[in-house]
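Researcher: I'd like a structural prediction for the single chain below. Treat it as a standalone chain; there are no partners to consider.
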Amino acid sequence: MPRLLRIVLLFCAASAALVAATWPVVPPVDFTKIAPSDFSDDDLELVTPLAHFAQVADAVVEDGPDRGFIKIAVWRSSGDNRPYNARIQENIIALAWFYTADRAWNPYRGHPAVRIRLEAALDYIARIQNDDGRFSEFAPQKWNLAATAFMTKFLGETLELLDAAAKTASPVTIDPGVLARAHATWRKALVAALTIDELYEFGTTCTNQYGNLWPGGLAWLHLHPDDTEIRALWEKRLAQSIPDFQSPAGFFYERQGPDFGYTLGTHETNIRGVWPYVRDTPRAATFIATEKKWFDWLSWNIVLQPGADWFAVNHAIETRQQHPLVRHLETPMAEHVPVARALSLTRETRAATIAAERTRLAKDWPGVAPLKVGNRTAFIPYLFQDRRSPAYYPTDAERDAALATLPWLARDRFNHARHDDRPGNGGADFLYLRRPAYYAAFASGQATTKQQRYGLTLLWRPDTGVILAGQSRVDGLVWGTYGPGAPIAIDSRTFRPVVTISKNRIPSPLPAAADLPDGDLVLRYKLAFPRNARPTGDKTVKFADDAITVAVRFAGPFSEKFPFVVAKDETVSVEDHTVTVRGPSGPRITLSFQGATQAPSLTEAPCSLPGRRIVCVQLAAADKLDYSLRF
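Model: Treating it as a single chain, here is the predicted structure.
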C-alpha cells in the first residue's frame, strides 16, 4: 500500500474516532468521597445503582440512527435489547433521577455528561414512536399496549423530575427544545392509549399494562392541569375499567384469569405511582375500593408458613407468571386496607433491616458486586419510580392484628366460594374450605391459559403449614387423575363439578364472593379427556372434618398424583396401603388407599418454597380407586 494512502486512511480513521467520541464520559463515582452516613434510610438502597450508573449511562449510543438508545442489557432480556424496543428506554427515569437528585452523595446532579445522554435518550424515544402515538416492543413497528402504556408512566415521571428540578433554588435544566418534544411525545402516547379501542380491549385481558395509564395520565394532568381533553379521556377510561378490569371474585384480569405475579408486581407499582396524586382527594376512594376487593381475594389464596416470614401462594391457578410465595409487600394501601398490613413489611422489621445494612456497609464500603449485564433485572427503573411514593409500614402490632383477620386464621370452619363469569362455558369457580385440621383450595370451571392447573390446588395445616401445592405450568406436579401416559391430570384443566353440602345441591353458578352453608361439602364430576365428549369415568371428592375422601371410577388403567410439600426435617414413608408424610412431632398427612394395582411410586422435584421439596406420590390403579387424606 503506498505510503500516502496509508497516511490518508489513518487520518480518516482518527477523524472518525474523534467524531464518534464527542461526548464526555460519565465518570464512575468515587466512593472515597462519600460514606454510608451520607445516605438517608430511604436512599440506602441506591448505593448499588449509584455504583452502576456510570456504566449504564455510558452505554447510551452517541451517534448514528440509534443515537440515544440505551444499549446495555440490564432491563429486559439480552435478546430484547433492540433499538425498536421502547421498553428498554424506561431507564430514562434513571438518567433523569441522577441528573436531578439533590443529594450530597450524588455527583451526577446537573452533570453535563449525563445531560447530553438524557437529552439524546429523550429524543430517541420521540423518533421511535409511531405517528399515532404507539410504541413497539418485540419487533419493528409491532406497536403494542405494553410499550405504549409503560412509556406514559416512566416518561411522565422523568418529566416530573425535570420540572421539579428546574424550579429549585439551584435549577437543573435541559435543552428547551428537547423538553418540548418529550412532552409532545408523552401526550401522543397518552392519547393513543386512551382512544384506540384495540389497546383498551387488550388492556381488559392484561390489566397491569393498561394500569400504567393511571399514574401516567395523572402526572400529565399535574403538569398540564388545563388539558381538558386528556382529563376527559382519562376519567372516561378509569370509570370504564372498574367493572372491566376486576373480576367479581376480586382479582384483576390477566389473560382472563388471576395472576399473582403481575398483580403483586406491576399493578401495585401502578398504585404507588397513582397515590401521590390522589392521596387526600375524593379520587382516592376509587382506588381504595378496588384494592380492598383485590386484597380480600388474595387473603383466600395465601397461607402463612408457621415460624417463617413468607406466605405460600395458591399459584396453580395463575394464568401468566409463577409466583409461589410472598414475603413482604411495600404499599401505601396498607394504611387504608387492613388486610394489606398482614403482608406488609413492618416498621420494626424495616428498621432492623436498615441497621443490618448499615453495619454491613461500615465493614465493606461500598460492597457492590459488578453490574450483571445480561440479567433482565440488573438495573430496574422501578427503583426510581417509587422514590416519591412511600409505602405505609405498619407496626408489628398492626401487622399481627391484620394477620388474625385472615379467613383461615380467624375461623376454623367454613365453605367459601368465589366465581368469575368472564371465561366462556360457564366461568370459573374457586372453593375455599376450612376445617379444624386443615384448609383447602379447589378450582374448577373454564381454564383460560395452558399453564393453569385446577382441582385440589392447595392444602395447609395450621400447625405445620402448606402440605400440598399444585404447580402451575409444570406437567405431572399437580393433584388429580391421569390417563395412561398423560402428562396433565384430567381434572387439572376445564371441568365442572356438581356441588352439594349436607346432601343439598348448591345452585350454579356459585356466588361471586360469599360463604356457602356449613357442612360436609361434596364435589361430583365426570372425567373426560380433553376434546373428548364421552366421559371415561367419574370422581367424588368429600371435604369432611376428619379427612378428605375421594372415589375414582375410570374405564381402564389410570393413576392419581399428590404433590406433597416436604420440609428438610420431614420424611415420606410407604407402608401397606398408606403413605405418610412425617415431621419431628408426628404425621403431617396420611394417604390411605384401596384399589391400587402396585406399590406407590415417589418422585422428588425442586420446590420454590424455601427449605422445601416436592415429593410427588403416584398411585396406579385400574377401574377403581378409593383414598383418604387425613391430618
